[in-house]
Amino acid sequence: MSIVFSNYSYQQTSYINSARNISGNLYTQKNKLSTFFSLQSVNDSLQKENARLMHTLGLHLPTNPLKDTSYTTKRTIDSVTSTIQYRYIPARVLNNSIDQKTNYITLNVGSLQGVKKNMGVISGNGIVGKVSHVSPNYCTVLSLLSEHFVVSALVADGTVGKVTWDGLDPSLVLLTGIPQSVKLKKLDSVFTSGYSAFFPEQILIGRAAQVMNGTSYKIWLSTNFRNLHYVYVIEDNTNVERSILEDSTKITP
Amino acid sequence: MSTPIKFTLNFIAIMAVQIFVLNDIVIKSSISILGFPAFIPFIYPLFILLLPVSTPNWLGMIIGFFTGITMDMFCNTPGMHASACVLLAYCRPFLLRLFFQQNIKELGNTIPSLFRMGFSTYFIYICLAILIHHLAFYIVQIWSFSQILFILLKTLVSGILSILLIILSQLLFAQKEIRRS
Known about the structure:
The structure holds 2 protein chains of 2 kinds. By secondary structure, chain A is an alpha+beta fold. In chain A, 25% of the residues lie in helices and 30% in strands. In chain A, strand 6 (151-155) and strand 7 form a beta hairpin. Chain B is mostly helical. Chain B has a single domain, classed as Orthogonal Bundle (Arp2/3 complex 21 kDa subunit ARPC3). Helices cover 75% and strands 0% of the residues of chain B. Chain B is built from 8 helices and no strands. Chain B has helices spanning 3-28, 45-49, 57-75, 80-99, 104-107, 114-117, 119-142, 148-180. In chain B, helix 4 packs antiparallel against helix 7 (119-142) and helix 7 (119-142) packs antiparallel against helix 8. Chain B is globular, with a radius of gyration of 16 Å. Chain B starts with a helix and ends with a helix. Chain A binds chain B through residues 1-4, 7-8, 10, 13, 16-18, 20, 22-23, 26-27, 30, 34, 95-101, 104, 106, 140, 167-170, 225-227, and chain B through 19-20, 23-24, 26-28, 30, 32, 37-40, 69, 72-80, 82-83, 140-142.
């Protein structure tokens, strides 16, 4: 029991996590076997994602998006040294759970691949979580399906609310803090806002499923946590500068 | 085969089934669509229940702790399985005395198995042990009084499946021990 209580703050579970090499290695072996059987569905999902990316790149659009000034300024304005704000590190899911109050996902990338603590993790369909512990070859991700995980969300008209999980159904999350005046319709999309330091803007979280009361909604997650194979860890090149600035603002209000 | 080696192999087999098969059940199935919360069956307490009857209490609790901490390492839970397992290992002698008081001396060094004990007593023994383990585990995991019904529901649905799997595994594997002895 003492182990439970000394570690009750979930963020500090520093010595029992499956980022450890023993369990990480075993999960890699198991993953090699089990991915073979799901190749079909993985291929389908990757193909769909490719199609979506081609579409957003504008390969089917008559105008060249690279000549669009709004598009190019957005890319170069971020920093002087690097023109791309976000870098995506591809990763494979080794272990995943959805039945607990705080769920963790083990990935096959670690500090050798440039993963650091508190980086955001997304899948092809939507957000997944953020990195909580890193070892040289593996990392554990605090899943969106966790009690203490809060992510700020943006609905279609620009209102910002927050998304949490109530610990019951792994395909539904709760969106709160939307004013009464804003009415969401069923199947309206909910995206991440740029307020969160871990995720880029406009990553899909899910679609509205039902209204709980005036200000909170149930959201169907767009990420299928039951069938999670390939994810991306987001490296934010301006994140360090931003968090230093935000921390110093908190100290001297 | 000497007893420690036999139990180590037993341990590896049970843990492998638990970690690589059962922990994934909830991911691949859609049980929670029926309105139940997502849950997984735990059969690894079976290892503690299968220790010889004459195992001293302190040794049982130490083995229980290591069983639980192994499970914790693979599930990213800080000591929850370990605490539930130590509680189960602590309760085990009382349960054994409760159900098999008349022949506990004869049993001595043998493993408490389904065919040696008789189906009905063994079934109740497994049920009680599993309920103790699951209740302890889910109380520590969820840890809030306001969700006491949720704790009970999870204990019940997970426990029923665990008991079913444990009885099935006993029916499959326990018979061999009788032939050997």
